[in-house]
């Protein structure tokens, strides 16, 4: 069956009483305000989302997010998975995914997830550099990541990795090395999260006393782009770049925001994608080997925004840096993700005129 849409039903399961102290996380300060998720909550969320899905031929997945699903009590995991699995059994839902820490994976935990039809397990790796992991008090090592990843694959689950960009003392090279280490463990999917400084965390203190300097948005975009290229070459799909915006994860200028500083952008992934389009367009222009004044880019209507860029950034950059005008022609026969480029005017034509 060919799916037209893919829908995710996110269910946030906070790890109440998490014994770890990751310096970027505020779960200790919010745990008093967060309530336990019940079976009814899961059912209500699923039903609500199912009602809102418009496309019949869609792939639907329940995603238990929150970081450490297998760290919560076994009975609670079972309670929540049971509800989700009922929907998989009666074919209303196609699959279930969970996310957890590398040191919360063992054979027993995997058997439980298997029993309830979980398909994908995402590991919060953050970095494979033990010094950086220690610096952010992550509480696990690269060795744990290797062991957990191998076990997950051995049990037939789809493996996912989440890594962070801009952790304290992490350089661009450290992140490329993490990506190389992860690629060897053969994840199917990867998520890239630039570090944001969240209120009431140890990182906030480090930021305020000048020990930690967050990345800027352009720096985070560049680093994510490099990793995106790397993973794509390795045929690993990058499914997300940047945290999902919520009422609390939003611009630091918003008074309700939990974000104090860091490369927050409501469309961060889009910025990276636009920048990738910009690189590809520029490469083609350079290959013309003639100074061009005006070009036409033909694209599928789906990709107009990618070519134009956020707030027309791509078009403005081509004009400012290369004095180049761009005409965009929409063409439904061009496959999404592809484009055709032609010269409308060279610099010589322009001068002759
Ligand atoms: S990020 Fe670290 S401290 Fe926060 S919930 Fe996950 S394991 Fe616990």
Can you describe what's shown?
With 353 residues, the protein is α/β, with parallel strands linked by helices. It has 2 domains: 5-266, Aldolase class I (TIM Barrel), CATH 3.20.20.70; 288-352. Helices cover 40% and strands 22% of the residues. It contains 13 helices and 12 strands. The chain has helices spanning 27-30, 39-52, 74-89, 107-115, 130-135, 142-154, 172-184, 202-208, 217-233, 268-288, 304-308, 313-322, 347-352, and strands spanning 5-12, 58-65, 95-100, 118-126, 158-165, 189-194, 197-198, 237-241, 259-261, 292-299, 325-330, 339-346. The strands form 3 sheets. A 7-stranded parallel β-sheet has the order 1-2-3-4-5-6-8. It has a 3-stranded mixed β-sheet with strand order 11-10-12. Helix 7 links the parallel strand 5 and strand 6 (189-194). Helix 2 packs parallel to helix 3. The longest helix has 21 residues, at 268-288. The termini are far apart. Bound molecules: iron/sulfur cluster. Iron/sulfur cluster binds at residues 15, 18, 20-22, 25, 27, 67-68, 101.
How far do the termini sit from each other? 56 Å
Number of strands: 12
| Class from secondary-structure proportions | alpha/beta
Q: What is the CATH architecture term of the largest domain?
A: Alpha-Beta Barrel
SSE pattern? EHHEHEHEHHEHEEHHEEHEHHEEH
Count of discrete structural domains: 2
Helix residue percentage: 25-40%
How do the strands and helices of this protein lay out in sequence?
Layout: E1 5-12, H1 27-30, H2 39-52, E2 58-65, H3 74-89, E3 95-100, H4 107-115, E4 118-126, H5 130-135, H6 142-154, E5 158-165, H7 172-184, E6 189-194, E7 197-198, H8 202-208, H9 217-233, E8 237-241, E9 259-261, H10 268-288, E10 292-299, H11 304-308, H12 313-322, E11 325-330, E12 339-346, H13 347-352
The structure holds iron/sulfur cluster.
């Amino acid at each position: 069956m060919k799916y037209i849409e893919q829908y995710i039903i996110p269910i946030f399961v906070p790890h109440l009483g998490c014994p770890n102290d990751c310096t970027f996380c505020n779960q200790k300060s919010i745990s008093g305000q967060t309530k336990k998720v019940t079976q009814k909550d899961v059912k209500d969320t699923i039903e609500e989302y199912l009602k809102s899905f418009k496309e019949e031929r869609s792939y639907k997945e329940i995603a238990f997010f929150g970081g450490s699903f297998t760290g919560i009590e076994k009975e609670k995991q079972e309670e929540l998975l049971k509800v989700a699995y009922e929907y998989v059994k009666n074919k209303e839902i196609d699959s279930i995914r969970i996310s957890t820490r590398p040191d919360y994976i063992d054979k027993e935990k995997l058997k439980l997830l298997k029993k309830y039809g979980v398909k994908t397990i995402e590991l919060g790796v953050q970095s494979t550099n033990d010094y950086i992991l220690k610096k952010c008090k992550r509480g696990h090592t690269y060795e744990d990541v290797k062991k957990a990843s191998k076990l997950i694959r051995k049990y037939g689950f789809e493996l996912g990795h989440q890594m962070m960009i801009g952790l304290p003392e992490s350089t661009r090279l450290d992140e490329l090395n993490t990506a190389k280490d992860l690629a060897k463990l053969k994840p199917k999917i990867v998520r890239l999260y630039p570090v944001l400084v969240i209120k009431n965390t140890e990182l906030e203190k480090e930021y305020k006393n000048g020990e930690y300097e967050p990345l800027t948005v352009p720096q985070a975009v560049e680093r994510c782009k490099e990793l995106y290229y790397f993973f794509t070459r390795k045929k690993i799909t990058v499914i997300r770049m940047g945290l999902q915006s919520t009422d609390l994860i939003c611009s630091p200028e918003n008074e309700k925001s939990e974000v104090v500083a860091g490369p927050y952008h409501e469309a961060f992934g889009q910025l990276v994608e636009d920048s990738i389009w910009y690189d590809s367009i520029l490469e083609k222009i350079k290959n013309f080997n003639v100074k061009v004044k005006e070009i036409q880019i033909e694209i599928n209507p789906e990709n107009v925004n990618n070519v134009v860029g956020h707030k027309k950034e791509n078009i403005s950059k081509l004009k400012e840096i290369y004095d180049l005008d761009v005409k965009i022609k929409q063409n439904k026969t061009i496959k999404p993700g592809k484009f055709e480029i032609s010269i409308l005017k060279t610099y010589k034509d322009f001068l002759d005129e």
